[in-house]
Amino acid sequence: RGYHLKPTFVHIITTKGKGYLPAEGDAVCFHRVPAKGVSTKAIPTYSEVFAQTVLRLARQNPRVVVITPAMPEGNCLSMVKAEFPQRIFDVGICEQHAVTFAAGLATQGFIPIVAIYSTFLQRAFDQIIHDVCLQELPVIFAIDRSGIVGEDGKTHQGTFDISYLTLVPNLIVAAPKDENELQHLLHTAVKSDYPMAIRYPRNSGLGVELDTELHEIPIGKGETVKYGDDVAILA
């Protein structure tokens, strides 16, 4: 009675971060509420080391391309986009397409790196299985925000990737022990001919020195970090 029984489209324009000036002033990058008054040492984040390494690998190999589902800034890929604008693809918030697109590029001889947050990769689980891993295509998944993300909030917790990725045949899943090993794992993945997922946190690295020369890491081989007699710790 008195209501229009027909479809109604309501277009509401909002202001991101309304009421909090720092958020209103940075609609692209302000996705979290940072801790106040906390001083941090100037150590590069894993995301920054990832982007610097990708830029280095792209300079060395013209077949390296990067795909991101609407997160070029979050993945620190602006430096890559500035130097190689034709080799970085922002497909928007379309994670499934990002993975299938990467698979297609791999069939044509490219080395695609899918730069994606852990929490968003789970949207493309079917494509990971059917379009990449069953075909054994050399797609690299660079999985940022793996583990607990803190300030980014519970929607961005990267707590499921190990569980669902280790189920998938033909996929290597790796987690670097520090930022130096991250760059070597990326180099290893680019040199490989199989699918590989590299997961790393959103935080700053450990502050270790970064090797100037990249080398391949043997897959499936352990490393003894410290010798002792009383306790054995496997990690």
UniProtKB/TrEMBL annotation:
UniProt keyword list: Isoprene biosynthesis, Magnesium, Metal-binding, Thiamine biosynthesis, Thiamine pyrophosphate, Transferase
InterPro entries referenced in this protein's UniProt entry, alphabetically: Dxylulose-5-P_synthase (IPR005477), THDP-binding (IPR029061), Transketolase-like_Pyr-bd (IPR005475)
Cross-referenced Pfam families: Transket_pyr
Domain Transketolase-like pyrimidine-binding: 44-208
GO cellular component, one term: cytosol
CDD domains tied to this protein: TPP_PYR_DXS_TK_like
GO molecular function: 1-deoxy-D-xylulose-5-phosphate synthase activity; metal ion binding
Protein's UniProt keywords contain Magnesium: yes
Keyword Magnesium applies: yes
Cofactor(s) listed in the protein's UniProt record: Mg(2+)
Gene Ontology terms describing biological process: isopentenyl diphosphate biosynthetic process, methylerythritol 4-phosphate pathway; terpenoid biosynthetic process; thiamine biosynthetic process
Subunit (UniProt): Homodimer.
Name this polypeptide is given: Transketolase-like pyrimidine-binding domain-containing protein
Protein source organism: marine sediment metagenome
